[in-house]
User: Fold these one by one.
Assistant:
Number 1:
Amino acid sequence: MRINKYIAQCGAASRREAEKLILEGRIKINNKIVVDLATNVDEYNDTVTLDGNIIRPHTRFVYAMFNKHKGCICSVKDDRNRKTVMDYLEDLKDYRVFPVGRLDYNTEGLLLITNDGSICNKLTHPSNEIPKVYIAKTRGKIDEDKLKELRNGIMLDGRKLSKSKIKLLEEKDDGECKYEVTIFEGRNRQVHRMFEWAGKEVLFLKRVQIGDIRLGGLARGKYRYLNKKELTYLKNI
Ligand code: URA
């Protein structure tokens, strides 16, 4: 980005005034005075100062939700060049967004996307106990005594899980069972491992809600910006 535009985006001066500041030798990039008005700034890596004080553009925070589908990697880059969520967020890339937490390769559903590290920490820190709601399908019902133990929190990796809510939503004639599972932390493959502990394989898993934010009818592979109500919820965590 041109240096005068950068200075203007920082709110330090208008573009024209910025040119004056440059010609007066008051602007430095990485500790070197710049006098060439055609200089470009690498807005992510360069440090720009005006009279010795660092200036930075106002960051525009972005908050969106994405409906991840099966077979999509939940990270910014994949070393095997497979499709990642970022391939579906082309228009948001410039904002340096990233997914909040992760979903397994074969898990579908709600993924929050932001460039606000502080909100990301709030959403993922276990002490905040943000409820995450999943729909899980298995073959056959989980035994009642096992369900009780799961709800109370079983041991995983030598640490007890916090309590969870598990509700049977549907049992089909062919034995397929649909559960709503609410967990309050986010351990690796947590729902899969809870069900495996109960002797049931998860056939399908989809996250439908995080805190007050619901996936609703958003199509697979699509994203949308969060609305005012959802933003207010995030800011109040
Ligand atoms: N639990 C899982 O097992 N997988 C996910 O992707 C999320 C929660």
Number 2:
Amino acid sequence: MHGDKQAIMKLPISLDVSKNELEDVIEKAKDWALMNGMCLRSKMNFNRDVLQFAPFVLFPSPFPREEFQNACDIQITLNTLIHRVAHDYDFLKETLEETIKVDDFTRNLFDIYEIIHEEGAAQKVSLGILRSDLMLDTSCPKKDTKKLKPHCCWKQVEINTIASGFGWLGPVSTQLHKFVLQELGYTAELNNLPENNALQTLCSGMIEAWNLYGNPQAVILFVIEDVTYNICDQRFHEFEIRKQNPNVKVIRRNLTQLAATAKLGTNMELIVNNYTVSVVYYRCGYEPGQYHTKKEWNARLLIERSLAIKCPSIQYHLAGTKKVQQTLAKPGMVARFLKDENMVTKVKEIFTGLYPLDFDEHGNVAVEMGILDPQRFVLKPQREGGCNNLYGTDIKDFLESVKSEQARVAWILMDRIYPPVHKNYVVKPGTNVDLDTKEFVSELGIFGVIIGDDQNIIVNKQGGHMLRTKLAIHNEGGVATGLGACDSPFLID
Ligand code: ADP
Ligand code: MG
């Protein structure tokens, strides 16, 4: 697809609003966002006590209804898949064996996993708050030209098992867009914006885990970064938990604080200051830089050893690595975890080509492919949080430099997805809005909640979504990393 003119997707409403009306609605939308907590702390002018609205696109973005429904429908199966992967010690060990030789971060996680596996987990139940991220694709060879759709299918970008954010910013973006559409007189169109109950679903999952723990005095611990920029997203979870059950208290600590204060009780309870912790919800701990010293790693180990229910537990964290994603795309792998053949086929359809860079014949072929046609791929290390991947000629340069080094096995190569483009206006704090429409592409995230142990799945549900949109010319689009904007889907038929 690259090189060709990209396929276009259109909203069934006009974006040609007069300059005056546009400026007016932009000002209103900014204030709506500020006054409804659709905000972030500023990285540029940091002040804990000040919030800015999160970048957003003014209009919701078109998304095909059928594909949206498919993505929601498959989530429960993806939850099951990840749950089973997380509970297959042999699979995780075999899959990550080569990676952990060269990737220290994954090895540190894996070392904790090994310790827990040998000792036996005090808490067998895990809480998974997952987000499967996907993009519509235009480059699939099976394109059905008769249907005249700008896309052919959708493909999974990745599945997040730790710190799956936007449980608040997702739904509040839908509310903002409803407001904007109403302001412009599009009331009949409002029901094209699907209901988004992400926040309620994720928080009810945490409360269900809290109930399972069975101590009415116990608290939920949010493990947070040293500085939280995406503060509204986290705090609204806390407020929603209180709303759903007024007896549940949330405490927030970073890994360094936990290293100094967290202890294990006589029955392996996690004790932080005077609190017993029932559920640990990580919004941090997915990047090497978040573990400043060995102390923070020890804190993670201590939490894993404890009786608290972890979101995610260490095996869930490992199940979300890019290496696991690539391994699942190999023939026969999904069938190892899902019995229903129909579902296996459906899951495999959402995978793009994923290629290991192991030191063998397949790995060598992948390295050569990447060097020859880098525009076709994205090159990914075992990292989360955005801005770690390589694109275009950087792939070529990097692969040439690591070709004969062991380090290459820490990376995977993935087919690049080229989504259809659509037009919009982007609104960012501190800058004037460009009143010419620009071309954007979007990434949809579908939330899932799963609770269970190695024997049983107790809760398995899909609930809510989020949409992030970036300029079509950009490689990545994280909102927290400053490249993307909050968005919501407008379903089109
Ligand atoms: P992270 O764990 O850092 O979020 P991702 O795999 O989600 O890593 O990649 C980050 C971003 O890079 C995505 O949000 C998307 O914008 C872009 N990206 C990742 N994989 C692809 C792909 N196969 N095709 C096109 N863009 C991709
Ligand atoms: Mg991602």
